[in-house]
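Collaborator request, handled under Task 6.
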Amino acid sequence: MNYLTIEQIDAYEVSFELSNYVWKIVVKWDYFAKKAMGHQYVSAIDSISANLAEGWGRYYKKEKIQFYRYGFGSLKESEDWTRKAIQRELISTEESQFIQERLQKLPQLINQLIQYTNTKLKY
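Structure tokens returned to the collaborator:
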């Protein structure tokens, strides 16, 4: 029997790729920008895939979904940090488009994961 892995979940893959993309941008910022907002921006972006992974590793349906919703909360925080990075001219137009496209895909992907979990798991 083949089991589904977290790496096969679209919400996880998109958020994981996004976290590494943002990391590569933020590490190039100057000290002040990294200290003032870079750390929190990377942390918020990283938390999306981290919460999805933690939820995936939980046993009970309600617990899984709770962590998927935490991931959704981290997504909203990441949207805020992205807007600030754009406003403060810390990311280029091309970078902001890449980031925002993925952030806009994630709510639907996370909701699909929640629906899948609700449908496939009994407890």
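The cover message to the collaborator said: "DSSP finds four helices and no strands in the chain. The mean pLDDT is 97. Please let us know whether this matches your experimental observations."
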